Write the structure tokens for this entry.
Amino acid sequence: MSAAWVGAAFAVAQNSPRLVALMLIAYPAWDAIANVLDASRSGGLARNGSQILNVVNLSTGVAVAVALGRSMNAVLIVYGV
């Protein structure tokens, strides 16, 4: 799934930088939401401790949004961390 997301980002990057920015923010948010839903259906986050780490992706989405206002290098740093 992530490979398809990256491919789509590269495919639209030249023609729609705003769409790519939205995709960069939405990907970690989507992952966090999916983990919360999965955990809620299988006993909650307290019972599925490893999924708590994936919920941190919400903060990644916020960090990417802030980094987009600075530079693409800042965005790469956020994803690298």
In short: Residues 36 and 44 are 8 Å apart (CA to CA). DSSP finds five helices and no strands in the chain. The radius of gyration is 14 Å. The longest helix spans residues 17-41.
